[in-house]
Amino acid sequence: MKTIPTKRASRCLLSKRQRQLRALLTALFLLTQSVMAQTTFHGNNARTGVYDSVGPKVFNGVQWSFKTEGPIISSPAIANGTVFSGSSDGGFYAIDQSTGHQRWKVMFTDPISSSPAIANGIVYFITYDGIFYALAADTGDIKWRFVTGGERRFEAKGIHGLTPSNQNIADPMDLFLSSPAVVNHRVYFGSSDGHLYALDAETGVLLWSFETGDIVHASPAVANDTVYIGSWDSYFYALDAATGREKWRFKSGDDPVYQNQVGFQSSPAVSNGVVYVGCRDGHVYAIDANTGKKNWDYSTSQSWVNGTPAVRDGVVYVGTSDTFRFHALDAKTGRLIFAFDAHSLIFGSAAIAGDLAYFGAFNGRLYAVDARSGKLAWEFQTDSSRKAPSNMLSPDGVFDKTAMAPMFHNFLDMTLNLSRMFSVGAILSSPVVDQGTIYFGSADGSLYAIH
Question: Residue 279 gets which letter from DSSP?
């Protein structure tokens, strides 16, 4: 006897199938996010800094370290068991994720401080020679290259109040180059020539470019068919991802005299219809992603915010430079939840994984902080930080003022102090969390895998 389902039974059956389909799609989405979460700067193209993998709750040791011949300022990316990273020695490296052994490297003429992105078997990044490269991820062979108008550091007369006041001085603290985002077969990145570029990811053909008023070293975030990026011209832009048409722009603070409190070195993070971004004008901004209207701003007492905010569960996490603080802010109001003292400059961006936030500082320490309370869970010191003399770095990670005293009494002192901080293995690289291990670079030239 054949049973004919009733309408009610049919609806129940359909509802069950819908639930199964929804569950399958959700699982596929989460799997895709997990796979993609390590292939681009700060975890995803929205740059939220959130990782599906749980990081180590206690420090268990160094899994491996890989030594290059120059400081590693950029952040690594991971795909198919390989860790990809550039170095200031001009080398771009592919390292076995499990062993730390080199699979291949390509040497370029100029330093690499752009964090790579990997998509469809291609690795993308820009170097200080002003050329944007696409390499085959398995071999390192150059598939194509795109020549920009050139790379340089931000510069101004008497920058930061330094002397000579009538001389153009390149900012030694402008340390990062733009890191690409790959979305819908397009690759987006900024350049010192003042443009944001959109290229065909397969061929490198220029699709469109958008000109800002100054250098663009921030990394673009892409969400809801919109590209978000800030420029050193003090404006933050929202552009149509397909055409490059400007949707809106937001004006931050300016500093026409010293050029100290101006410019977006921080890259944006986009979450729940809001763009969160730090600025050298000493603020963290929350901007409506659709309209460009400011929701709130948080003052950091004129301390630069160069790292990219991380956003999860209604909390924004971001570090500051001169105040040495790692902040947790309410995402809706900007209210301070906690501030952790790192004792040193924070230029890198935090990774949020499990219950902890992981970030590095100029004193050569990687901190693991409870994401809810701000309490220190554990910390790791680079080899150079552990070996630093006591008259340079105190046991709690504070630089000795005498060791950092001026020598030239002009702009060269800023470069000298940067070199001193690099000598203790400063961590500017933003950590990546995958399969319970944390990967990051250091100014001591090492790429670390710790667990």
Answer: E
Of residues 325 and 28, more confidently modeled: 325
Q: What is the CATH number of domain 45-450?
A: 2.130.10.10
How far CA 399 is from CA of 79, 154, 297, 396, 423, in Å, comes to 37, 26, 30, 9, 12
Positive or negative, the CA dihedral 235, 241, 245, 248 is negative
CB within 8 Å of 395: residues ≥ 6 apart:
none
Q: Which tens digits make up the pLDDT trace of 181-190?
A: 999 999 999 9
**How is residue 409 written in tokens?**
């009494």
Above 90 in pLDDT, residue 30?
no
Token pair belonging to 79: 């795909």
Greatest distance between any 2 Cα atoms in the chain = 98
H helices present in 203-302, as ranges = none
Q: Identify the helix (H) or strand (E) that includes residue 8.
A: helix 7-36
- φ/ψ (deg, to 5) at 41: -60, 130
Residue of 354, 355, 357, 384 lying closest to 368 (CA atoms): 357
Beta strands in 289-412 (DSSP E): 294-299, 310-312, 315-319, 325-330, 336-341, 351-353, 356-360, 365-370, 376-381
Domain boundaries, the chain: 45-450
Which distant-in-sequence residues (6+ apart) come within 8 Å of 424 by Cβ? 363, 364, 382, 384, 385, 388, 392, 393, 444
**Sole residue written with tokens 């985002």:** 181
> What is the rounded distance in angstroms from the CA atom of residue 178 to the CA atom of residue 6?
60
The rounded distance, in Å, linking the Cα atoms of 210 and 194 is 8
3-state helix, strand, coil in the chain (%, to 5): 10, 40, 50
Q: What is the DSSP letter of 393?
A: B
How far is Cα 372 from Cα 406, in angstroms, rounded to an integer?
40
**410 and 162 in contact (C-beta within 8 Å)?**
yes
**Cis omega (within 30 of 0) on the bond before 116?**
no
Q: Is the pLDDT of residue 5 over 80?
A: no
